[in-house]
Amino acid sequence: MYLTQLLFLVTNMFQDATDVAPMDTLSEAYSDKWIAAANQGEGFFASFMSSNNLIFVVLGVTLIIWTVLIVYLTRVDKKISLLENQLNHSSNEA
Amino acid sequence: MGGFLINIPFIPILEQTARNLFFHVPMWMAMYAMFLISLFHSIAYLRKADWLADIKAEAAAKTGIVFGVCGLLTGSLWARFTWGTWWTFAEPKMNLAALALMIYVAYFMLRSAFDEPKKRARISAVYNIFAVSTIPFLLYVVPRQLTSLHPGADGNPAFSEITAAELRFILYPAMIGFIALSYWVYDITYRAYRVRYISEQTLRNPI
User: Nearest chain A Cα to B84, which residue?
Assistant: First the structure.
């Protein structure tokens, strides 16, 4: 039961991405027309992010930077571990 | 060092979302710094044919891509709540930045196409010089001619008099800090690649 509730919450979180800003961005540049900024959508995610003067957007931006860097460094770390294993293996053989 | 420096931007001054300036813009500055390092080492490789220079160029380009991806993702989130969309094709700087990253992804595809280290190093160094020469056009010249929501469009300088002056006092240290952070990440990558190269060579020709 909790699982279905959680699933509902998660799907609701990202629902707003589609029902916002139905404007044509291909044929016309809309410089100086910040129409969609006033209409942030209804979803949980959108209303949470636009609360408190958009401070959570800043939080999100910093978290994105942290996540990307950590994921990248973890991958480099894994690569190095693999190399270490190979080296140990080959020195054992010799 | 990077972790210490990253705390600098948290000084509160402006209304909230403008703080993204201290994170989004330095990402690109770090990316430029990395691509410049990459260019420097590619030229050094062509002059001296030193394999370490090739490895350095590769590591710097990789780190540049990582920071470029950070810049794109943060810009996308920021755009969602100020411009209203995650992505728009009416925004030249956004799309050209994505294109610039793809040019650098192609650099790694080119690298992976060669088995012979010397050939790979020489050809990818030449490609890298071409790749870096597109960056100023994609991210400065062309967006300035077109209308855009980014500052610095329509022939304006990016920092105009409407920008609060006190932003600079945080932004410039933040740029230096993030460039230092990117240099640290680059150094880690470079050392990893160096070890990989050495181990490949020893596995190929055991002592």
Answer: A36
